[in-house]
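tokens incoming
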């Protein structure tokens, strides 16, 4: 939770102003783009947790047809598929959310995060360990926050020095 709290404080520091949509925070991404990216990964892990709770087994997509069907069903790429390179799903996410309001992205991201917490609370520790879920959750939440927080801090610092 500490990384989540730090990440939320950092976003609050950026404020809900035009700065949230300014490009250049991470490559050509804005903070809004980063949030959409995080939302997609959190929704991915939230859905995988629900599958585990329901006794279903997630198998990463191994064909393009399966990847397309997965994206159609869930609304995001199969981030666990070995067929995807790192950039392809990220570009897809940015394109999907480019016309979605920041407030909507924030609300959806909070809902995905809440779903993750709810699933964790409802699962036994042995079930979480059995599926290596702690590692998967960490990679799609707090490690992800930390990775992007570094970029946001750097960008905030550089924009503040330009304003002085």
């Amino acid at each position: 939770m500490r990384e989540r709290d730090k990440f939320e404080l950092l976003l609050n520091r950026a404020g809900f102003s035009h700065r949230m949509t300014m490009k250049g925070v991470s490559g050509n991404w804005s903070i809004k783009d980063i949030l959409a990216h995080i939302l997609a990964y959190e929704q991915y892990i939230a859905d995988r947790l629900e599958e585990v709770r329901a006794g279903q087994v997630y198998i990463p997509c191994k064909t393009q047809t399966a990847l397309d069907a997965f994206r159609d069903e869930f609304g995001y790429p199969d981030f666990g598929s070995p067929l995807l390179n790192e950039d392809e799903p990220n570009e897809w996410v940015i394109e999907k959310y480019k016309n979605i309001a920041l407030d909507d992205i924030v609300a959806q991201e909070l809902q995905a995060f809440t779903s993750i917490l709810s699933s964790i609370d409802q699962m036994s520790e042995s079930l979480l360990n059995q599926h290596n879920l702690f590692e998967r959750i960490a990679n799609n939440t707090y490690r992800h926050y930390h990775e992007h927080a570094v970029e946001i801090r750097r960008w905030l610092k550089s924009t503040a020095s330009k304003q002085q």
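note: The mean pLDDT is 91.
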